[in-house]
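Hi everyone,

Forwarding the result from last night's run.
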Amino acid sequence: MEAPLILEQHYLGCLSQASYLVGDRAAGVLAVVDPRRDVELYLERARVLGCTIQHVLLTHFHADFLAGHLELARATGAKLHLSAAASAEYPFHALTDGAELQLGAVTVRALATPGHTPESMCFLVLDGARPHAVLTGDTLFNGDVGRPDLMASVGVTSEELARALYRSLNEQLMPLPDEVLVYPGHGAGSACGKNLSSETWSTMGAQRRTNYALQFADEAAFVAAVTAGQPPAPAYFARAATLNKRERPLLDDALARELVPLSYAELQAEVAQGAAVLDTRDKEAYAAGHLRGALWVGLDGQFASWAGAVLDLERPVVLVCDPDREREAALRLGRIGYDGVVGYLADMPGALAGAGDALVGAPRSAPRATAQLLTGAADAPLVLDVRQPGEVAAERVAGSLAIPLGELRARLDEVPRGKPVHVHCRSGYRSLIALSLFEAAGRNDAIDIPGGMLAWTADGCPVVEGARCSG
């Protein structure tokens, strides 16, 4: 006989984001925690399990993705639950600390855990009377805790939230038994923390032993540690957090409006009206030939988060995609709350072949070729490193300028003119995005180093070990 408890993690690698199905198989009732915006997955799982989705819960107002709570509530009629500390434009049931949802023999207990945000909650899942797992949202990760610095724009300081986070961890989570499973909202690759593990679950006992942030007996030391060295927050974070509080268009409605095939002439007309072009193809295809001035973020990478970091989110965009991938691109943009697609280039191969002088390649320099140019002469190129500060601190090219990719669009003027700018990241994905930012800004002085730091060190090119980031 199958156990009645249902607890499924659904992990979205592109956004390093986890959502959860919780329920009781015998009672046929489910709750969904932190759903992504494209909700068909949960509807299909409910059908397979023979259950109905009756509750939708958010751990907090997420900044890194647009949650699918409104989509799921419309599709199922489920009741929406948020912290009593939350304020939103849509109706919801307010959960106070200790409030419980009964799903047959399974109980979901709300734990108020302010810190990452003021309204953050964790959800303790009890199988009968036994604590089985805790869904920690962005309060506790595997190896880290939620960053407390994302609310400065609304007047809440990182120090205030870090103090609240310290109390939440010690009063709500640390007393849980060692065997309680920890299911966080994110894994490695998310900008919601600085030290996230690639493992997507843990136990309270393991976190007590190994999580650096749970080793502090002193609140002041904890605050100093968790507020230091946080990665730059992508530009779209504040916008997504605001949209998660609002009534807004649902994903299917947005996609129906966005997926319009455009001829090359119609694309040019949209550009003349202020639209940007976003090329999402394989990086080698983009490098071989793309429309001049197009931004590039490849679908075969962390597309949504990097698109959100480099796009002007108030500007419409036309997509250039490999055939039959335009819906995927628009959907993944929709996951971060960007519904500004005005169409996609139809007959992409033929349209690009006929673009004439508007089609350009990406200038590139092999690592060894760049290294041989770094002679100290006045005309030697500048090396621009667009990795995160922690990556740069471990090793860097001597004399390079470091600006994280997420900050580059706003800081392009800090990159000197008058000499070639050779751009690198770790493996070549972020550097090609950076190259497209230069081109879109009208600068033709950037050159990509394919393969990034991995290729640089593999070729035996010199680096400074344990360098400090000054960019």
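The mean pLDDT is 94.

Cheers,
N.
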